[in-house]
Request: fold
Amino acid sequence: MSQVETEVLIIGGGIGGAAIARELSKYKVDATLVEKGVDVGQGITKYSSTIMCQGANVLEFRSEYHNSRLVWAGMSLMEPLCRELDVPFKRIGSLELVKDQAGMRHPEKMMRRFSNWHGKYLPADIEPLQFIDRETLRRWEPNVDKKYIGAVNDPNIAVNDPVRLTIALADNARKNGIKILLETEVLDISAGTDEFKVQTNNGSITCRYIINAAGEYVGKIAQMADADDFVLYPVKSYQAVLDKKVGGLINRMVLATGSGMVTPTIHGNLFFGISPGSQRLGKAHDHSTDKKLADAALRHAQELVPAISARDIINAFVGFIVFRNFEIGWHECTVGVSRWVPRFINASIGFPGICAAPAVAKEMIEILTQQGLRLEENSQFNPYQKAMPDFSDLSDEEKKKLIAQDPRYGHVVCRCETVTEGEIVEAIKRGARTLDGIKFRCRPGMGRCQGGFCGPRITKILARELGIPEEEVTKKGGESRNLLYKSKELLEAQQ
Amino acid sequence: MKLQDVDVAVIGAGPAGMAAAIKAREAGAEKVILMERAEELGGLLHQCVHNGFGLLYFNEDLSGPEYGHRFIEKVMDTGVTPLLETMVVRLGQDRQIGAVNTREGFITFRPKSIVLAMGCRERSRGALNIPGTRPAGVLTAGTAQRFVNVEGFVPGKKIVILGSGDIGMIMARRLTLEGAQVEAVVEILPYIGGLIRNEVQCLHDFEIPLFLEHTVTRIHGEQRLEAVTIARVDGQRNPVAGTQRVIACDSLLLSVGLIPENELSLMAGIQLDPVTGGALVDETRQTTVPGVFAGGNVLHVHDLVDNVSWESELAGESAARFAAAGKPEARGEIKVKAGRNIRYVVPQTISGRKDTTLYMRVSEPEETVRIKVGNITTKGMRAVKPSEMLKIELSADKLEKLKEGTQEIIVDCEKRGGK
Reply:
């Protein structure tokens, strides 16, 4: 059992916790982030859609909500943040499709709101919306269903890889002095007058401030400290990733009221999902997919883009959107000091959490200051870092140069995504400890064969680099070992 | 060897690529290179330690490695140049190849002709969209085969296998011999997906339960697989309510079909057959891009390696001829179309002027039938099944029956006999 003392404890290594840690690293502060998983970004962050930056859909948000203000602020913060951390960010834009004249009422309202809110609630740098007619729609997106009579073009929507951003935020925070403890699960919290005593599976932590950014477990953590002055309702969403060979079916995200959305991803796949508008309550923490939801999502996606086929799905998963006021059909975030426990700050970002995260992090600095924490600037803070090489994205000349420097970049391990041994070794150097950890850093196994070919090879490389036997390699930590026995082990046990 | 002078480049050194490269050399191509991403020749044959290889080609019962070894020796003897640990990452419409390896780095060259022999891959869980959680312990049968036969690991001790493809049934036997308990082989169709001999020798002989018209409807377990739910399916392949049962297991192997690996072919602008998933070819195995040929599982999924070797030899020979002539022979223009109860026919076009073998599969099992190739020939069969590929040989003299100007030939599987 170890004893850790820290001024600020951040619980949860998802996009929220990582963004807060990175923001805090701009100051001279003794802060620690604990994550129960073996890696950051593996909770609901992993299950979120690829939309990083919102656009016209934020016009649906009510201006009086805290969540709306965070999302709007996040819209301007995301791109510069991605640039600092060398994380790709692509503004693909979106088209909200309109089926008939009656369907025009909603886009018209959005356009009106846009002009009223621009510069008031919405950041000044947001691009204006524009209505495109049937012909333009056909020309821009020939694979969108012919029944639509036009669309609202929103150039603001951007895609990225939320897990990569989370990893980059955590890496940058660590480099700038924040301690990050993985595989550290908070089991109990007792609140004293001046400090909290936090029990974990790895010993106890004493701290003065707690930031509860535990994602879907935010309620459970708050309960431990009797700081749960909110009720959350999880809503299940279903999302599917399609083969890159159909990645070019559309160029922009397309969506329609009552249907799901279909979007290209930053990696060139196609992605579809049922939006939270469909509002299906799920059992908390149950990330299993079910056939009804899958079938409905596919039907919705085909409404928008008829060429989408179940045959091209390479992976599907379930995410949660945590609604606070489900009964009134609206959702609010829970970002602020618990009304009951001073210095215990809940940071349950609302929907869409990815976009709001940078703004939540900035707000956290204000909240901590109000709670009495003195924050002095960290003059050593370095906001920049370099992403690891992405071999498949390089020009021929760059490929040649990289292989000449390190021949392992000439050894392609994952054929579907063209990932080299050099990248896998670099990912391990940067902290990957599991098959999923490598997959989310450089994509082997994310392609159409889903690791069938490269799985055994990556297992070998991981075992070699970590100096462990191959049968101890896990998919995602804990009990998720891939190979349970050595050859002949079962036969010997029977004798 | 200077890559600039290559006559024939073969992509992939499994059974198809090796046969094509050897034949290309034998047919007179001087510089033949055999490009392989793995560290040795032979492809998947190394992990196929069971027997049943070469019964037709060598008239002997060999294991996969033995069958492969005979070709590896011949590759060396005939003077083919292997280029190992080299991954082709690009194929242009002009036959320009881009490849990487650790020695030369990134290389580009343009051979006179190319044989595609990239084989196939297994369908994964994502393609099936099986509902449930995402634990460790769900893997394709072929990946499990590699772990057990090459790497020296056994994925688990309580196994369920979804799909009754050949690799799945062979792994059911293999894992039983390794001391694991195979709880069930679950097949959605009313008949098995692989060869009869594998059903008998791998399942029946080892008393492994086979559930036909069943499928896996749910995957359970957070970190490692804990159980699967299986259920009976109706005629539309939908699960029947009330027939679910939960089987505790730590591993689920998927043997649910193979997909020809044609990403490079698509890059080169080659047209694919939507049914086979492989290129559209004529009887020389030339694709729709001149000078690019294909053979083996990249073209259509075979059940016997012997046929892979033969077909690829044809592609290799044609590639050598193309490299020598520098221009395509007149492409076969007569379309060969799948008719009644025929799922596909390869090649999809023929010239009608030379001896040709048609490879085909039926859509549904049927008994007492006759395969009728237009008005050219018929062949009576006692029983046909989708899992067993059929071969019909068309000799040049039979093809003379074709009327001048014939544009298409339809292949039907007809019911035979009045009663």
Notes: Chain A touches chain B through 64 residues (CB under 8 Å).
